[in-house]
Amino acid sequence: MSSSPIIAIIDDDPDVRGSLDSLLRSVGMTPRCYAGAEEMLASGGHEELACIVTDLHMPGMTGLELQAQLSARGWRTPFILVTAYPTDAARDQATRAGACGFLTKPVDPDRLLDAIEDAIR
């Protein structure tokens, strides 16, 4: 990649945030990590984001609720949902909401990187 895309990582699990932060840095991406959707929304700087990788189920706002908030604000940043509890209904809901990817935890690093690269092309 010619520039360092900024990728938001939103997950309530600090271990997940840490491992994804390390993974993205190892391939030259710039992660911004948040413990929840509300923290990400309050942080500002969203116009710089190339992609959002968010947990589906978190305390407070879910990943799908975050996507709805972003759409309502006119943001078109691509997003990828990850979950430890994949169901066909959740996958269908994510697809209808416009998710670029739907991955199961533990996330395979190569699949995540491929999904991010596809999303930011």
From TrEMBL:
UniProt domain Response regulatory: residue ranges: 6-120
Record-linked Gene3D superfamilies: 3.40.50.2300
Chain positions found as 4-aspartylphosphate: D55
InterPro entries: Bact_response_regulator, CheY-like_superfamily, Sig_transdc_resp-reg_receiver
Membrane spanning stretches: none
GO biological process, one term: phosphorelay signal transduction system
Superkingdom field: Bacteria
PROSITE patterns on file: RESPONSE_REGULATORY
Keywords of the record: Phosphoprotein
Protein name: Response regulator receiver domain-containing protein
